């Protein structure tokens, strides 16, 4: 009889099979959860696209059983004496848990609800524990499960910060198209048709050997490697093959310094932005076209579409790597550097990364606009202009409580890729001006905007942009980064001007829900450093007003002293014509007036005249 500890099993399981009433631990050495927003964007986009390949409004729930499956990837477990430890795959399992918690909260109040509890937690002797059992996370997951949000504390570690942010990302990015009649169909499909390959070893040694083999000694060629092999095979001389082989290795190495699979994203962005001509129509059973094929098997697409890429002879293949790939790799690295490190000449790339749609749609737009003959100044202006359009489009939708899931805007943005491909700066400006004038949403939504459990990220984005804008126009050196991230000091948090005490406002409110709704409007919100809020946030407005003079200019502008001996600010107010004014008291009418001011500042920030500037 074979030794049980030497056994290794591999089998595909549905999410329901993997998580239902199961318990998993995570070893200390890999407890940190590190997924970023772009991982969530890609996961949601992939799931949404795969689901809508089959879904039809005429279907019954049982029809979901015949829908296509979606492979989410492998996980490696060590199973000793019935206790399962995750050796590889905790990022996916944590993200799935957050996704299921969100879906569970989304169902609250619905007459018919799919029970997801057993996929999220199990209960023994009245004690609830999450199926991904990490004690340091329990307080955060409890709050997300019960309340739908968690206020991060100073004492929380990086993982709790990331879990909270990724849950908020899921709430922001989850498509509106899946929130109505399609929701139960999607949940059924997700838990029954989305598949993980579970590799189980019955000893830690075997489990770690499998993990190392998968990560260090895998022999499967990636799509990038297969594309390289095809391109090199089309070059005639050994000298040319050797040269572009070195170019390829050098450029892929640079890309991998961003993240492990950034080369995949690079080729998808480049090929979609510069060469794709077609996209799959949004109907059940429709065949994949250029856009989708590049997203799944771009190496095969290149092989089948030489004419679209202008690859007609051996020298074309050589130049495709030696010239074109070098140029566009540099472009990709420039884009991602500006997204994560604020640069004034490319500031809108940074803004759009914080509030914009998925990079899988944004990147092709950015690539489309750039011609290989553009100089550095032209490239920067084009990138900033495209990113400014992405940011403005996204702000318009966010201000009007509209989502921008991939399915809802993919046709719009794909057609825009074709429209702006290789255009001049002035042509881009004209196109973007017309597009923004034509869409239904605009900044009027700022006048009605309020904060709720799932748009705090957007509200902080708006407040950070407004605060930085008026300070910069008043001669201060602060930037958006100061307020949105503030890496050099205490992070800033959203502060209610009104304390959470309706008794302070009993002359204007008799219903708690009306008070809460008004208190959460944008006009009642400012940004303050963490800790400042807690120190006097519960006081009356008149008590807090003197403290605001020590804070940023948006907070200071509530106090009449801000309008004395402050020449740079007063010059800005005079030049802009904005109706800044002090508020010695803060009643409902003051809040409304303040919100109107925020809307007018937003008009100045996202003025579409930007696109007519050379």
Q: How are the secondary structure elements laid out?
A:
Blueprint: E1 8-14, H1 15-19, E2 24-26, H2 37-52, E3 70-80, E4 83-88, H3 90-106, H4 117-120, E5 121-124, E6 127-130, H5 138-147, H6 158-173, H7 183-193, E7 194-201, H8 204-216, H9 223-233, H10 238-256, H11 262-274, H12 290-304, H13 314-340, H14 347-354, H15 359-369, H16 376-399, H17 406-420, H18 425-438, H19 456-473, H20 480-484, E8 492-496, H21 512-519, E9 525-529, H22 532-536, H23 541-548, H24 553-556, H25 567-576, H26 588-605
Parallel strand pairs: 2-4, 3-7
Antiparallel strand pairs: 1-7, 3-4, 5-6, 8-9
First CA to last CA: what distance?
79 Å
Strand order of the largest sheet: 1-7-3-4-2
Tell me the number of strands. 9
* Structural class by secondary-structure content: alpha/beta
The number of domains: 3
How much strand?
5-15%
Which outline best applies? globular
**Radius of gyration from the CA trace?**
27 Å
Biggest sheet overview: 5 strands, mixed
Mean pLDDT: 89
The helix fraction, in percent, is: 40-55%
User: Low-confidence parts, pLDDT < 50 over ≥5 residues?
Assistant: none
Structure annotation, total helices? 26
Overview of this protein structure:
The termini are far apart. The protein contains 26 helices and nine strands. It is globular. It is of the alpha/beta class and 614 residues long. The chain has three domains: 213 residues, no CATH class; 223 residues, no CATH class; 161 residues, no CATH class. The strands form three sheets. The protein has a five-stranded mixed β-sheet. A two-stranded antiparallel sheet has the order 5-6. Helix content is 53%, strand content 9%.
């Amino acid at each position: 009889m074979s030794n049980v500890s030497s056994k290794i099993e591999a089998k595909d399981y549905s999410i329901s099979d993997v998580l239902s009433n199961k318990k998993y631990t995570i070893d200390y050495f890999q407890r940190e959860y590190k997924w970023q927003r772009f991982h969530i964007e890609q996961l949601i986009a992939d799931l949404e696209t795969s689901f809508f390949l089959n879904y039809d409004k005429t279907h019954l729930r049982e029809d979901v059983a015949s829908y296509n499956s979606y492979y989410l990837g492998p996980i490696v477990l060590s199973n000793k004496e019935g206790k399962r430890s995750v050796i590889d795959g905790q990022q996916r399992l944590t993200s799935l848990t957050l996704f299921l918690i969100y879906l569970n909260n989304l169902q609250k109040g619905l007459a018919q609800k799919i029970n997801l509890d057993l996929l999220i937690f199990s209960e023994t002797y009245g004690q609830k524990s999450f199926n991904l059992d990490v004690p340091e996370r329990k307080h955060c997951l409890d709050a997300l499960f019960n309340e739908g949000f968690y206020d991060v504390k100073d004492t929380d570690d990086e993982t709790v910060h990331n879990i909270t942010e990724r849950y908020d990302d899921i709430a922001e990015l989850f498509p509106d198209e899946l929130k109505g009649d399609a929701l139960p169909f999607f949940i059924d499909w997700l838990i029954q048709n989305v598949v993980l390959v579970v590799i189980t070893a019955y000893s830690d040694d075997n489990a770690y050997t499998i993990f190392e083999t998968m990560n260090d000694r895998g022999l499967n060629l990636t799509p990038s490697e297969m594309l390289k092999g095809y391109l090199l095979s089309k070059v005639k001389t050994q000298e040319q093959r050797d040269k572009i082989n070195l170019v390829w290795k050098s450029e892929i190495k640079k890309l991998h310094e961003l993240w492990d699979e950034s080369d995949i994203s690079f080729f998808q962005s480049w090929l979609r932005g510069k060469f794709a001509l077609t996209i799959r129509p949004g109907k059940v059973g429709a065949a994949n076209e250029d856009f989708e094929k590049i997203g799944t098997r771009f190496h095969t697409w290149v092989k089948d579409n030489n004419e679209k890429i202008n690859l007609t002879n051996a020298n074309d293949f050589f130049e495709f790597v030696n010239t074109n790939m070098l140029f566009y790799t540099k472009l990709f690295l420039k884009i991602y550097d500006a997204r994560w490190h604020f640069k004034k000449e490319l500031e809108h790339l940074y803004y759009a990364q914080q509030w914009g749609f998925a990079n899988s749609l944004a990147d092709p737009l950015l690539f489309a606009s750039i011609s290989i003959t553009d100089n550095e100044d032209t490239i920067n202006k084009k990138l900033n202009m495209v990113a400014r359009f992405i940011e403005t489009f996204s702000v318009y939708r966010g201000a009007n409580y509209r989502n921008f899931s991939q399915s809802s805007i993919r046709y719009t943005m794909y057609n825009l890729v074709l429209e702006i491909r290789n255009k001049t700066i002035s042509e881009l400006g004209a196109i973007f001006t017309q597009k923004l004038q034509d869409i239904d949403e605009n900044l009027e939504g700022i006048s009605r905007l309020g904060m709720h459990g799932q748009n705090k990220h957007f509200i902080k984005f708006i407040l950070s942009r407004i605060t930085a804008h008026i300070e910069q126009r008043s001669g201060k050196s602060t930037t958006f980064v100061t307020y949105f991230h503030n890496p050099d000091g205490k992070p800033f948090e959203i502060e209610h001007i009104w304390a959470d005490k309706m008794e302070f406002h009993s002359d204007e409110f008799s219903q708690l829900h009306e008070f809460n709704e008004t208190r959460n409007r944008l006009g009642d919100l400012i940004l303050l450093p963490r800790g400042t809020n807690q120190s006097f946030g519960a006081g009356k407005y008149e008590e807090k007003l003197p403290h605001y003079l020590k804070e940023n200019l948006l907070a200071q502008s509530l106090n009449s002293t801000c309008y004395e001996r402050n020449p740079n600010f007063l010059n800005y107010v005079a030049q802009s014509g904005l109706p800044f004014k002090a508020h010695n008291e803060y009643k409902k009418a003051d809040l409304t007036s303040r919100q109107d001011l925020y809307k007018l500042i937003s008009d100045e920030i996202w003025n579409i005249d930007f696109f007519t500037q050379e």
